[in-house]
Design a protein that fits this description.
195 residues, alpha+beta
């Protein structure tokens, strides 16, 4: 039965990347206002966190703010709120050019460098291949080490445990490393240097 037939649509968390170029000398005021804007967002339904990445080099002068909401609807409620628009008026007056915003969901969030400014996501076929390169050996090792114990369990608990372990390893251990190891192939030189 499809998700539409069951009356439910698949709900995916959404990640928003906002890029802002701040006028020289306005950085401190910008960071203070951005912190207040984040505090305001944190009380909205579905808010899941935010990070600010300061400019990494003189050739990359953009601030990037990443925040997450649990659903597109909750994100939309925040984006169209009067409270956000009031803060944005003050923030936008400190910028060289208007903010840019990119909304992503799903696997794309695995393909950003931890602690560095995010880049454009790679093509989907590359994300799928690198994800598979991480999943295949992980599942193989789990079955090799724990296959006998898992075989004795009923199907649903076995799948529940296996999928939980794989997702935790993928999110927190494997994908940050695989993204770094395969960055030469995932991201063209232009996308790594020009953001």
């Amino acid at each position: 039965m499809s998700s539409k037939e069951s009356g439910k649509e698949e709900v995916l968390p959404v990640t928003v990347v906002i890029s802002r170029r701040v006028r020289k000398g306005c950085e401190k005021q910008f960071e203070e206002l951005s912190s207040k804007l984040t505090e305001a967002a944190s009380v909205f339904p579905g808010y899941q966190g935010a990070n600010m990445f300061r400019p990494s080099t003189p050739t990359d002068p953009e601030y990037r703010i990443i925040f997450k909401f649990d659903t597109k609807d909750n994100l939309e409620a925040w984006l169209t709120s009067d409270e956000r628009n009031n803060w944005l008026r003050d923030i936008e007056s400190l910028l060289v050019q208007p903010s840019t915003m990119e909304v992503t969901s799903g696997l794309v969030t695995w393909f950003s460098f931890h602690g560095e400014n995010p880049v454009q996501p790679p093509p989907k076929y590359k994300m799928a291949l690198v994800s598979w390169l991480a999943v295949f050996p992980t599942v193989t090792i789990i079955f090799w080490l724990f296959g006998k114990q898992l075989a004795g369990m009923p199907l649903l608990p076995r799948i529940l445990i296996l999928s939980a372990v794989v997702m935790i390893l993928m999110t927190y251990v494997l994908m940050p490393r695989f993204t770094k190891w395969f960055s030469f192939w995932l991201y063209t030189k232009e996308k790594r240097d020009i953001r």
